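Example 9 (inverse folding). The structure is encoded as follows.
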């Protein structure tokens, strides 16, 4: 990472009240791995150091706002792509046990490789679709937290994520600007699958100022057996 990239990372993380000084080398290694792999495996559209630092690393770390992910928790990153937010969270919070799940095998293979090369023992890669995994014993109700970034609209996320949580578990969904309509539809969908919106935290991404929202949904009752519906249906016919 260049000195400018390092400065940006530390400055933006400080705005999130995180001191990344002890971890900056690991982020530098991750940057290198991403840039090297990006051409082989269409992993991410971001190639430029500044973009990767701010729009992947710092953006992922905003999931820590509010302390919703807590301490020693089993966390599922649903739709992790090239490992976001899973990898930055695993670097900064070694006490979190994070399963990085995605439907695309080559992305998950990259995440597994990156975790090994960075020496992260708290990341478990998992290939699969939420619709199928959310019905599997051991996966259903298998995590205390589900985190997602840029995966789907809130009503779809509620149906895909809540089956992975036991009652009392939390979905922490990182989104861009959230319309009142999406929040309303998400609230209704959450109720259908056993959840209630606990918090809506609207904020600006450090340095860039882009609008972001963390939506926290608590599982307050069991998810009916019929959810999640079969592959593709939650996306094609959202509950609300
Ligand atoms: N979270 C990453 C990020 O923020 O960079 C990736 C975002 S990418 C736009 C959305 C990812 O979600 C894709 O990699 C896709 O394969 C995955 N995805 C979407 N629906 C999914 C599902 N039902 N089950 C598993 N993965 C899914």
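The amino acid assigned to each position is listed next.
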């Amino acid at each position: 990472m260049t000195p400018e990239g390092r400065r940006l990372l530390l400055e933006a993380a400080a705005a999130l009240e995180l001191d990344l000084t002890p971890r900056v080398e690991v982020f530098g290694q991750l940057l290198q791995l991403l840039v090297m792999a990006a051409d082989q495996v269409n992993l991410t559209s971001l190639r430029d150091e500044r973009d990767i630092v701010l729009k992947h690393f710092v953006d992922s770390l905003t999931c820590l706002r509010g302390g919703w992910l807590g301490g020693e928790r089993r966390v599922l990153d649903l739709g992790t792509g090239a490992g976001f937010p899973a990898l930055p969270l695993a670097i900064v919070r070694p006490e979190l046990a994070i399963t990085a799940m995605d439907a695309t095998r080559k992305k998950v293979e990259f995440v597994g490789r990156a975790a090994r090369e960075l020496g992260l023992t708290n990341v478990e890669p998992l290939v699969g679709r939420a619709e199928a995994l959310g019905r599997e014993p051991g996966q259903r109700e298998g995590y205390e937290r589900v985190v997602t970034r840029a995966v789907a609209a809130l009503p779809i996320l509620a149906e895909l994520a809540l089956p992975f949580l036991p009652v009392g578990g939390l979905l922490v969904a990182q989104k861009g600007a959230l319309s009142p309509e999406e929040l309303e539809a998400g609230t209704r969908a959450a109720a259908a699958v056993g959840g209630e919106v606990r918090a809506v935290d609207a904020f600006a991404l450090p340095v860039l100022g882009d609008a972001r929202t963390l939506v926290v949904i608590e599982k307050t009752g069991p998810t009916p057996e019929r959810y999640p519906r079969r592959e593709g249906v939650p996306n094609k016919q959202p509950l609300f």
